[in-house]
Amino acid sequence: MLFWEGMTEFRAIPELAGFRARKPLLVTEVDVVDPASGSVSTGQDILMAEGRVVRVGAALRDPEAEVLPGAGLVALPGFWDMHVHTFDEATLPKFLARGVTGIRHMGAAPVHAQWQAKLHGGDWQAPRMVFASPILDGPRPTRPGSIAVTTAEDAKAAVARSVADGAEFLKVYSGLPAEAYAAIAASGVPFAGHVPFEVPIETAALSGQHSVEHLDGLALGTSSREAEIRRGLSTLDPSDPAAMFAEFGRLNHLAATTHDPARLAALCHVFLERGTWHVPTLAVLHAKSTVGTPDFPLTPYLPDIEPALRPAWSRVGSWSAGTGEREVFEHSLHLVRELHRAGVPLLAGTDTFVPGHSLHDELGLLVRAGLTPLEALRTATVAPARFLGAGNRFGAIAPGMTADLVLLQANPLDDIANTRTVRTVILGGAVLG
């Protein structure tokens, strides 16, 4: 049985519009991987036209098609990064160059309205995108551009504003009061994001939060000292960010080191029953746990980091992660392993640190957590399609599917690191140069 069977589906995103080629394309003699089944069909031709896959088989012909020889290459559906923060248009080609043909924005900015319009224009070579609302946070937001929400009435107004501005789902955040969170959950608009400090993760799942980011609230919800840690969270002061994050780190470490497996098992049952997905963003947690060490993965890629995030990560040489961060990361690997063993569905997401590149880091870390290469591939292909209600258009290379493909030089079923061997990216049936 596939890991998502029986899960509640996310509301279908109506368009997922984007670029499509004007001329047919024929890729010849390529090995095609089906991430759903894990099967590999060797020596296949793939004919694409008008942005869709038309046929997959042997010895296909179309006199009108551009021909791309694919012998020795491995074809997969384009990858999705399901947790992205990017506001600079110059980053978008970097996603595509690394095989990421779809992204889910996790916090709206004014530029995103322009991007939505350009996507629907149809001639823009950019990843397909799904757009959140601005971050809906508590009365003292910690992120620029957030909407401050205190009461249920504030929440209803924020929801109405977000929907009117084109948000396809709502992004909830850590500081939301429980009353406001409940009003958002009752709005009927899909919502995802952090689990607020005032809201137990079980309540978030029962309220219909469709994805939990960063394993947020999970270490807390499975700690034998949850009540004590919650009291500490209630005293965090956003007016002093340095002190707040230091105390939050201490409480997070306490949660990680007081884990109760029975509590996790009970929560997994709730997640399965309610269709709650998780986006672990292990790449972020790994970076935080390795700063100041030779294992820190971002140093060679600082020029590619989203400009708004680059200054902070450029200063990593002046500080280092403590033992607590490393233990939190190792505990996160354990939580992902246990979620997966229980059948709770996972999505690959990165928080964007290095556009495109970090997605490959995330897949490798999911394998480190205990997934097979095939299972990790699913988190970036068929699982996003299923989550978005677009399984009839994305996540496979088959007739009628959107023609977003990645051609690799080696098979990632043999080694997940082979997802990095991108030779060619095809978007909407067009080869990207």
Automatic annotation (TrEMBL):
Domain Amidohydrolase-related: 75-431
The name this protein goes by in its record: Imidazolonepropionase
Native source organism of the sequence: Amycolatopsis xylanica
InterPro entries referenced in this protein's UniProt entry, alphabetically: Amidohydro-rel, Metal-dep_hydrolase_composite, Metal_Hydrolase, Metallo-dep_Hydrolase
GO molecular function terms noted in the UniProt entry: hydrolase activity, acting on carbon-nitrogen (but not peptide) bonds
Pfam families for the chain: Amidohydro_1
